[in-house]
Design goal:
Helix content is 54%, strand content 11%. The protein contains 14 helices and eight strands. It has helices at 3-13, 42-51, 103-115, 124-128, 143-157, 188-191, 214-227, 229-237, 247-257, 260-272, 275-287, 289-304, 310-348, 351-388; strands at residues 19-24, 34-37, 57-63, 66-71, 74-79, 91-96, 184-186, 192-197.
Length: 390
C-alpha cells in the first residue's frame, strides 16, 4: 500500500461509523474540463484491457457544475455536485494547459460544442477503439469521441492542427489516452475534496452497477421513440429532406413541417409509454422536495441554536450557495424550454408540444420551489453567522 493510501485509510479509521468518499467542488471545476473515470465493472475492465490504459470513461464540463457524457442510453447531462467518488484514484480531472495559446477561448468553445452532441447514440466498440465492420451510424457516439470532437473543433478554430492526443487518429482515442495529451494538465487535486458523512451519497461515478439516473432514462426513452417504426414512417411521409439524429432534431422537424400526422404519431408514443408522467415522477422522487424542506428546517434550527460549529456553518453556507447556482441554471433552462414549447403548440395546434410544454412547466415549478427552500436556508444561515460575529 502506498503511503498516500495508508494516510487515507488511517484518516477513515479516525471517524468510525462515518462514510468516507470524495466529491468535486463545482467552484473549482471549469467549462472545458475533462473527467476520466473507471469502475470495477466488466465493461470498464474490457475497455481498459483493450486500450491498455487506466480509464474507461470520459465526460466534458459544459457549464457551472454540469458535465455531459456518452453512455449506453445516449448523451446525457449530469451535475457533478450530485455525484461522488468511492476511491480517489478512480477519477482524474484534466484541464487545458494555461500556456496553450487562447486556452480559455478553446476550453469555452469545446464546452459550447459539447451542447450540440446531447442525445446522440453510443458505440461500445468505438470506446474500445475497434473499427466497426459496417458503415458508422451518425447517431452513434462514444464517450471519448464526445470530448475529442469538441476539442478538435475548438483547437482548429485556434489554428492548432494537432489532435488532442498527438499521434493518434481521432477515432482511435480512447478515454484512457486523454491523460497522455501534452495539452492537458491534471487538475484533480484542486477540485476533488474528501468528505465524511453518516450516510453516503446515492450516486457514485465509480459505481460498478449504478442506478439509472432520470436524465439517462429520459434519453433512452426518447431514442426508442425516435427509432420506432411508426415515427420513422411518419418522418418519411413528411417528404422533408431530413434524417433526425436526436429527439431534439425530431422536434425541429415537427416545428418546421407542422405535420399533423407526425404530431399524432409522436404524441401517441408519448402517451403509450406514459413518458411525461414517469419522467416527472422520477425527477420529483430524485429531488424529494418534502424531505429537502425537513432537512432544511433542521439545519436552520441547528445553526440558529448554536449547535453547529463555526467551520461547519461556513461550509453549509458555501454548499447552499452552490446548490442555488446549479438550480438557477436549471430553472433558466426550464423556463426557456417551456416558453418554446408553448409558442410552438399555439402556432400550429400541435399536441406533442403541448404535452412537452406541460411537462417542462412542472419541472420549472419544482425547480422554483426548491430554489425558494434553498434561498430561505441561505438567508437563515448567513443571519446565524452574522449573529456570531463579535
Amino acid at each position: 500500500m502506498r503511503s498516500s493510501d495508508k494516510a487515507r485509510a488511517a484518516a477513515a479509521d479516525d471517524h468510525s461509523g462515518e462514510k468516507v468518499f470524495w466529491r468535486f467542488d463545482p467552484d473549482h471545476v471549469q467549462p472545458g474540463d475533462i473527467l476520466v473515470t473507471r469502475t470495477p465493472s466488466l465493461k470498464s475492465l474490457a475497455i481498459r484491457a483493450a486500450t491498455r490504459t487506466e480509464f474507461s470513461h470520459a465526460a466534458l464540463c459544459i457549464g457551472y457544475g454540469h458535465f455531459i457524457e456518452a453512455i449506453g442510453t445516449g448523451v446525457c447531462r449530469f451535475a457533478i455536485k450530485g455525484t461522488s467518488v468511492r476511491k480517489r484514484d478512480n477519477v482524474r480531472l484534466l484541464r487545458l494547459r494555461r500556456d496553450v495559446p487562447h486556452a480559455q477561448a478553446i476550453a469555452k468553445f469545446a464546452a459550447d460544442a459539447g451542447h450540440q452532441d446531447l442525445q446522440r447514440g453510443y458505440s461500445l466498440a468505438g470506446a474500445v477503439g475497434v473499427k466497426l465492420p459496417t458503415k458508422p451510424d451518425p447517431r452513434a457516439m462514444f464517450c471519448s469521441q464526445l470530448v475529442v470532437e469538441a476539442y478538435d473543433k475548438a483547437m482548429r478554430m485556434a489554428r492548432i492542427t494537432d489532435p488532442l492526443v498527438p499521434g493518434r487518429k481521432l477515432s482511435k482515442i480512447a478515454p484512457g489516452h486523454l491523460p497522455e495529451s501534452p495539452y492537458l494538465e491534471d487538475a484533480t487535486d484542486s477540485a476533488l475534496k474528501q468528505m465524511r458523512a453518516l450516510e453516503g451519497p446515492y450516486w457514485y461515478l465509480d459505481e460498478p452497477n449504478p442506478e439509472q439516473r432520470p436524465h439517462q432514462w429520459e434519453t433512452e426513452q426518447k431514442l426508442k421513440m425516435l427509432g420506432s417504426k411508426s415515427v420513422q414512417s411518419a418522418i418519411k411521409k413528411t417528404k422533408a429532406d431530413a434524417n433526425p439524429r436526436s429527439f431534439f432534431e425530431l422536434e425541429l422537424l415537427l416545428r418546421d413541417t407542422k405535420s399533423k400526422d407526425l404530431d399524432a404519431v409522436i404524441a401517441a408514443a408519448l402517451q403509450r409509454t406514459n413518458f411525461c408522467e414517469l419522467y416527472s415522477g422520477k425527477i420529483a422522487s430524485s429531488l424529494d422536495l418534502a424531505a429537502m424542506k425537513i432537512s432544511s428546517d433542521q439545519l436552520i434550527s441547528r445553526a440558529a441554536g448554536g449547535q453547529m460549529p463555526d467551520a461547519d456553518l461556513a461550509a453549509e453556507i458555501v454548499e447552499t450557495g452552490q446548490q442555488i447556482r446549479l438550480f438557477e441554471d436549471d430553472l433558466s433552462d426550464r423556463k426557456e424550454q417551456y416558453s418554446n414549447y408553448v409558442k410552438r403548440a399555439m402556432a400550429a395546434d400541435l399536441k406533442t408540444f403541448a404535452m412537452l410544454g406541460e411537462l417542462q412547466g412542472e419541472m420549472r415549478d419544482l425547480s422554483d420551489d426548491i430554489l425558494a427552500v434553498l434561498r430561505t436556508q441561505l438567508a437563515a444561515l448567513q443571519e446565524a453567522e452574522r449573529r456570531r460575529r463579535p
